[in-house]
């Protein structure tokens, strides 16, 4: 494995393998230049990303086209900070400081005017992301790093919509952001290694564990996770075992905290289906084709937790795992 920890701005060209551990030891010098961060999209991921930056002392402008969503996000961040105070991991004063570090905007140009880094966490739609990055390229200050939290869209393609592809990178936070340690850092074909170094050091400063990978369909997390989930659904479809048996084998046999069918419900079956489509089209390999049962469930609106039913049924206020009547007795 070729390790490259230089910070001289050369391109990764999608071929250089980098060690996050090596880079994680870097001092804060690389991040010293970053104090103002724009976060685009105030949904599930955007509010978590704003939360962790603000808690670590960065000034954050949270930007969303929907003003009501911004209000909701600030409420969610406040509630999540309260939980940390109740656990004793944060003081009331630290909570107030973190909240004071966040401002909101509905206008992208105003929101990123003083940013040294923008993290985009808007809806997973390629046309939308390309439009956002075209705009960011014209309104963000020169030298501002443009990161995306996309789960599956090519960083190289997003970067090509800008005139600063060397400054575009993937920062794939995991859900829920304040809790999950990993940030998968994705180098686009043209991402400068100095940018990878800066973002790696920044993640370490947030208390996260950065892991750098290159830009191929599904990156690492979803390239490995989604075929496992798809195989679990195929096993159910073929009658090899029922929902509970499949999840129990993987929980108790492989020490997974959650079975693959429960995890698919949590992620959203529509999201799983669209990531499998990216893998299928990106590699041109039929092994990534979504199981017909998954496609049918998405078509029928059975999307998992968000729709109230997937492989399990979700009743508000209940933590019991109840298998959907579509699969009961199997
Ligand atoms: N949800 C997850 O578990 C998860 C995990 C990792 C990565 N991601 C990725 O993170 C990104 C966001 O996902 P999410 O689950 O938070 O989505 P979400 O639907 O909860 O939130 C998306 C937000 O983007 C806003 N938005 C849409 N267009 C916008 C625009 N032009 N400008 C500003 N804001 C805009 C919407 O109003 C919404 O508030 C996606 O790329 C997704 O693939 C999601």
Task: Explain what the structure shows.
Helix content is 45%, strand content 13%. With 330 residues, it is α/β, with parallel strands linked by helices. The protein has two domains: 20-214, Rossmann fold; 221-316, N-(1-d-carboxylethyl)-l-norvaline Dehydrogenase, domain 2 (Orthogonal Bundle), CATH 1.10.1040. The strands form two sheets. Strands 3-2-1-4-5-6-7-8 form an eight-stranded mixed beta sheet, sandwiched between helices. The chain has a two-stranded antiparallel sheet with strand order 9-10. Helix 10 (221-237) crosses helix 13. The radius of gyration is 20 Å and the shape is globular. The N and C termini lie far apart (47 Å). The model is unreliable at 1-11 and 13-29 (pLDDT under 50). Nicotinamide-adenine-dinucleotide binds at residues 40-46, 63-66, 69, 121-124, 128, 132, 149-151, 175, 267.
């Amino acid at each position: 494995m070729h390790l490259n920890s230089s910070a001289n701005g050369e391109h990764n060209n999608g071929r250089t393998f980098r060690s996050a551990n090596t880079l994680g030891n870097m001092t804060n010098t690389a991040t010293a230049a970053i104090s103002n961060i724009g976060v685009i999209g105030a949904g599930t991921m955007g509010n978590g990303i704003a939360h962790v930056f603000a808690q670590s002392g960065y000034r954050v402008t949270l930007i969303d086209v929907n003003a009501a969503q911004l209000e909701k996000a600030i409420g969610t961040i406040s509630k999540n900070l309260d939980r940390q105070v109740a656990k004793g991991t944060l003081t009331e004063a630290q909570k107030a400081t973190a909240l004071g570090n966040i401002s909101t905007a509905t206008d992208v140009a105003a929101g990123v005017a003083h940013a040294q880094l923008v993290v985009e966490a808007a809806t997973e739609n390629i046309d939308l992301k390309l439009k956002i990055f075209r705009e960011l390229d014209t309104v963000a200050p020169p030298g501002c790093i443009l990161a995306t939290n996309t789960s599956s869209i090519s960083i190289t393609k997003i970067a090509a919509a800008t005139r600063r592809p060397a400054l575009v990178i993937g920062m794939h936070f995991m859900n829920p952001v304040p809790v999950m340690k990993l940030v998968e850092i994705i180098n686009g074909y043209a991402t400068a290694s100095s940018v990878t170094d800066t973002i790696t050091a920044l993640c370490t400063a947030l208390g996260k564990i950065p892991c750098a990978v290159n830009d191929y369909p599904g990156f690492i997390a979803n390239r490995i996770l989604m075929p496992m989930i798809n195989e679990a659904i195929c096993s159910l479809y073929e009658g090899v075992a029922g929902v509970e048996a499949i999840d129990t084998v993987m929980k108790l046999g492989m020490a997974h905290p959650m079975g693959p069918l429960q995890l698919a419900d949590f992620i959203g079956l529509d999201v799983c289906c669209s990531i499998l489509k990216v893998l299928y089209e990106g590699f041109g390999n039929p092994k990534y084709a979504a199981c017909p049962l998954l496609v049918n469930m998405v078509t029928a609106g059975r999307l998992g937790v968000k729709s109230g039913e997937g492989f399990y049924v979700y009743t508000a206020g209940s933590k019991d795992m109840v298998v959907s009547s579509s699969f009961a007795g199997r």
